[in-house]
Amino acid sequence: MESIQIGYMPPANEITADNVMQLVMYGQTKAFDFVVSPINSPNYSRVLFPGESPQSPSLVAWRAGQEAFKPEDLVLRTADHTDYIVGTLSDWQDFDSPDARVRLHSELALKQQFNWAAHLGLGGVMLPYPPSTQSLANYGRVLTGSLSMLAYTSCWFKVPCMDEILEANVSEDLQGMKSWERWNSLRNMAGSESKLGIALELSGALPSDQVLDRWFAEPVKAIILSEDIFLTNNKGYPVLSKRHQYVVRKFMKYKPAFILSSSSLPKLVLDEFSDDSLEQSMASPHADYIRYLHRTQEAPGVIDQFATGYQDYLQAPLQPLQDNLESSTYETFEKDPIKYQQYELAVEKALLDRPVPTNGEPDVTVIMVVGAGRGPLVNCSLRAADKARRNVRVYAVEKNPNAFVTIQNMKANLWGDRVNIVFSDMRTWKAPEKADILVSELLGSFGDNELSPECLDGAQKFLKPDGISIPADYTAFVAPMASNKLHADVSAFKDLAHFETSYVVMFKAISLLAQPKPIWTFDHPNWTDIPMDQDPLSNHHNIRSGSIEFTSETSGMLHGVAGYFESVLYKDVMLSINPATHSPGMFSWFPIYFPVKTPLYIPTGAKVVLDFWRLTDVRKVWYEWQVRCSVDGVGEINATALHNVGGRSSSIGLY
């Protein structure tokens, strides 16, 4: 298990240039990973030049950058141990003051502090939370223009999870959203791709889960816990309430640092002759407790273990008709026990439902596995036949020449005469007989995004009139979502094309603004649109569209659309990556992410409409999408552009 970083933050007004190195030694003695200290002393507020004329020589010189820090301005005067220190900025700086001089001098002071922090090589800089009644407009402008000065130093904006002043008249279930709203206004100015992170301060009273969920989609780099919110157990050790334990453990999955803040300054210098010298030299019990919570987290499940390294990583969906999959890709999918367990069960039930032969009729059930890959579904079908005690004749059809080598070996060494192997595209193969059961695993993260409908349209002519397709149907689901990280990663490409491309992603730092809803379904076999024994003349019957409305329970930023699927393999046997019905332990498919170029602010209670189209021509299939937001009594308040018009940026090739 990865280690956890824990820091210590004493009262800023009690740290001086004289005791800051003692603070460092205290932190090391108590086994903290870093300490938090002010960069400047209160004396630095002199740069406001109260009462001085605009023509004052000292004021003019300082504005012109001709005056460096004075020693008495600084708490951190040297680069000693600065990689162990996170610095905090002065809280007297008022970027949105009605006084023009205070605004200007606060800005110049911030830039001087950033320069000094970068020069020292501080591990990080923490920005103060402005007064609740104050605008953040100028603060955001100043910060956005100054972040580039911190090339190698992290920058965290300190935010309380509950702003007591702003939340005074807010309903209990929405308390905490005002703090998020303030952060969001600052982040929107800085841009989602900026290096600005969050130091989130957890209070004694915590927001509801739906409010906290917004923070999981944000760049929370540190969690601040005041020692005052800890309880004392019957053994005298500090502990957190059950609710705080739950929240802290949930944040631990996102790997932030933790900062223990104290309302009083402890004895920084160890007195080896005192009665409590042993206790002074022991690690912080509060920090030990946080480490205990980290050690005793629930062990990662199968999906989490498989997803290591893939979480919030943008991957292009597979194009199995255009590209031949590599052996490693097949191997990855074949490790999923749940998917093949469900396929085997579906085939077994389908075999048991076939009529029992009478009057000397042939007792062999013909199974065709189309898109056989390296043979896992063939193995499933043979095991299912053995369990159902039915005689089967299996055809394994595969167009990938490299995968076909593997199934040649499987036939020679394992399957024998029970399986006929065919090297062909299922859409063009001329089958020697009709199938009772057609089995395929052509599903993508959105159900149809790897062209399962088009492939099975060409293969269903192999089926008998009463034949069974496994899967029988699949439904795409969509939900509005927030993810600062994913949007920033797409923004980093700096072009339109990447915003008009869908990505397969193992979601982690995301927040759904509403629960997923179904948008369209494909059923197989499709005797309605395709005459028996024939190929379709066009692909127009596979066009789909939908406009799905959601109501946002809390405000949030919409960075895109999350896509999922549910599939009925046969009767009650299902596969699903929809969060509400997810097949336990299945990891073959990650969700799909459709980004929007310009994030939308979604107010509490707003109606969000996701418009989606699945379109096609003779060469390709593509998706187009847009998002609209409206408020009752006001109407539509914002909307995105239509993305990927005509498949100009991304599509799935039919050949």
UniProtKB/TrEMBL annotation:
PROSITE patterns on file: SAM_MT_PRMT
GO molecular function: protein-arginine N-methyltransferase activity
Family: Belongs to the class I-like SAM-binding methyltransferase superfamily.
Organism: Linnemannia schmuckeri
Domain PRMT5 arginine-N-methyltransferase: 305-470
Residues annotated as the enzyme's active site: E441, E450
Name used for this protein in its record: Protein arginine N-methyltransferase
Transmembrane domains' residue ranges: none
